[in-house]
Amino acid sequence: MAMNGFKGALTLACVAAFSLSGCSTSERSNDSLPGKSEKHVMNMTMQQAADRADAMLDATFDAIKPSVHWAHGATTTGSCDVSRRRVVMTVISKERMGSLLGLVQRSWEQNGYRIKSVNRDEVFPAIYAQSSDGFGIALTVGADRQVFFEVATPCVKPSEVAAPTTPPNGPAYKYPIPRPDVHSDFWSSSTAFPSGSPAGAAK
Prior knowledge:
- The chain is α+β, with helices and mostly antiparallel strands.
- Helix content is 23%, strand content 17%.
- It has helices at 4-15, 46-63, 94-110, and strands at residues 70-72, 76-77, 82-88, 114-119, 126-130, 136-141, 147-152.
- A hairpin with a 5-residue loop joins β6 (136-141) and β7.
């Protein structure tokens, strides 16, 4: 069962003009991803697609400097698709949130992802992007500025899907995942953003 903060982020995702996917009453589905209406099936299994999603998330977190603590969110599967999720456990101050968003967006652009939509809401911002092979990736911000990442795969060949193998860089929480509880001298700081910081200026 998804955590309360994640449900809040999912609700925001539902109303975005260019969200990763459509939303049902309980979970986000991938039925509205580009190509889904034609039911085009990529030549890979759901497990291979999940591995690809994990690699996209790994690369995203590798690009965040200084690093943040994160935990695995829920993995959900449809008839031919998979969604992988991660939840940031580092406290991100309002003064540093824009810098995190800008850093992630630039990383995705450098990896060739197409930015589909940016929600610039001051409280619940979000970024939605898509890889050239149809994998949707999103950053959404929920209650207490908790940051959520999700990769939604295109339709692929049905198969069993194992849990992610990448270990979180903090406690492996069981649901419900708590609010952010890890202090960072950089990301949790309430001071003005320092010039020359490794995170760079936010877009």
